[in-house]
Amino acid sequence: MSAMQQTLAASLAEIVGPDRVNIDHESLQVFGKDWTKVHEPNPAAIVFPGSIEEVQALVRLANKQGFALVPSGGRTGLSGGAVAANGEVVVAFDRMNQILDFSAVDRQVVCQPGVITEQLQQFADDKGLFYPVDFASSGSSQIGGNVATNAGGIKVIRYGLTRDWVMGMKVVTGTGELLELNHGLVKNATGYDLRHLFIGSEGTLGFIVELTMALATPPKDPTVLVLAVDDLESTMHVLQAFQGALDICAFEFFSEKALRHVMAEKGLQRPFATEGTFYALIEFENTSEAVLESAMSVFEHCVEQGWALDGTMSQNITQARALWRLREDISETISRFTPYKNDISVQVSRVPAFLKEVDNIVTAQYPDFEIIWFGHIGDGNVHLNILKPDALPKEEFFRQCGEVSYDIFEAVKSYGGSVSAEHGVGLLKKPYLQYSRSEGEIACMKALKQVFDPNKVMNPGKIFD
C-alpha cells in the first residue's frame, strides 16, 4: 500500500475508529464492486460508519481533502452504480443495520439504510403486516440501496415500486448537510418533495442515512398459476383476461431456454409435460371459492382461445414457492455464464412487438450467442440476457455486446421506452442515457447535482459525467 493510502486511512480512522477502515486487498475487491463484472474495482479504502454524524464527517473530510465517495449497500446492483474503479473511498453501510422505530397506527417502520430487505420483510410479517417490494436479491440487498435505485421486483403490478413505500428519509448531501424529508406524512403540500429526487439518484446527490417505510396488509393465500404459451402476443391476451377477472399480484414471464437452465442447475422439475416457447406466471389472492372458480374459468378460456397450451396451479404455499423458483432462480442460475444484462421497459401493450424486434437484432448480429428472456411483463419490464460462450474472452464478449446495445437502444427509443427499468444507470447504462432522456432533462439533472454536491464527491461518474 502507498504512503498516500496510509495517510488517507489514518484520516478516516479518526472519524470511525481504526478497526472500521479496511485497506487490505481482499476488502478492496469485495466492497469495491457490485454484481457487474465489466469494471475492475480499485478503491483506495473501505470505511464503515456507524452513525449519521460519522457519515456527515466523512463527507466533510472528502470535500476538504478532495477525494470521492462511493456508497455500498448489499452490492447486488447490476449497472455498476456501486463500483469504485478510480481510487474512491467506499462508504459501506453494513453497520447501520438497525430497525429504529415502528408505529402500528401509521403502519410505518423507521430503519437504517443497511437493513437487509428480507429483514424488513420478516419484521413486517412479525407485526402482522407486509413489505411488498420483493426480488431475487432480497436476502442480501439493503433498503438504502433499494431506495437509491428505486428497486422494482416481482409485485410492481399490484404494489408499485420502492418509491411508493418511502414515507420519509434523512439524507446527507454532498456538502455534509443533513436533510430530513417528509417526516412520514401521508399528505404534505408544501412545495417540492425533495424525497423523490433522492429516490433513484444512485448516491449521486447524497447518502441516505435513515428511512421511514410504509407497510401493507399481507396478501391472503397467495396462489400461483404457471401457463405455457407459444408467443408473446398470446401472453398479452392472457394478461388482459386475468386482469379483467382478478386483482392479480404478479404477472411474470420467462422463456423455455431460461426454464431449461434452471431445471438443470437447481434440479427442479418441469411444471407440466407440455413445453411452451414462453411461460407466464400469475399470482393472485385466493380469498374465496368464487375467486378460485373465476381463476379456473379464465384459465380454461385461455386454453380454449389457444392463448395457453397448458398450465398448473399451486394447491398450497409450498407449491406456490416451488413454482416461483422457476422464475426467481433464473438470475442466479445464469450468472455463471457471465451474462450481458439489459434491463429495459416499454408500455405493456408494446412488449410483444418490441421483444420480437430486439430478439431479431441480437440474433442477426450474434447468431452464436444464447439469448435468455425473462422479466416483469405485467409492468412492461423485460430482462434481456446474452450468455457468454465459454471460449470467448470476457473483454471481447462485453465489447461485442456493447456494440449491439446501440441498435437495441435505438429500438427502445423508437418505442418510447427506458434503457434501464429498475437497475439504475450507474456506469453500464451511462453511454446510453440519451436514448431515454432528452438533452434538456440531462441538463436539469446535472444542475441538480451541482446544487446538492458542488464539489462532486458523491459517487462521481455515475449516471452522467
Automatic annotation (TrEMBL):
Xref: Pfam families: FAD-oxidase_C, FAD_binding_4
Known catalytic reactions: (R)-2-hydroxyglutarate + A = 2-oxoglutarate + AH2
Keyword Flavoprotein: yes
Annotated ranges, domain FAD-binding PCMH-type: 39-218
Molecular-function GO term, any one: (R)-2-hydroxyglutarate dehydrogenase activity
Cofactor(s) for this UniProt protein: FAD
GO biological process: respiratory electron transport chain
EC id: 1.1.99.39
Metal-binding found in the keyword field: yes
Entry-linked PROSITE patterns: FAD_PCMH
SUPFAM superfamilies recorded: FAD-binding/transporter-associated domain-like, FAD-linked oxidases, C-terminal domain
InterPro entries, per database record: FAD-bd_oxidored_4_C (IPR004113), FAD-bd_PCMH (IPR016166), FAD-bd_PCMH-like_sf (IPR036318), FAD-bd_PCMH_sub1 (IPR016167), FAD-bd_PCMH_sub2 (IPR016169), FAD-linked_Oxase-like_C (IPR016164), FAD-oxidored/transferase_4 (IPR051264), Oxid_FAD_bind_N (IPR006094)
Organism superkingdom: Bacteria
PANTHER family xrefs: D-2-HYDROXYGLUTARATE DEHYDROGENASE, MITOCHONDRIAL
Family the UniProt entry places it in: Belongs to the FAD-binding oxidoreductase/transferase type 4 family.
Subunit note: Homodimer.
Name of this chain's protein: D-2-hydroxyglutarate dehydrogenase
Species assigned in the record: Pseudohongiella acticola
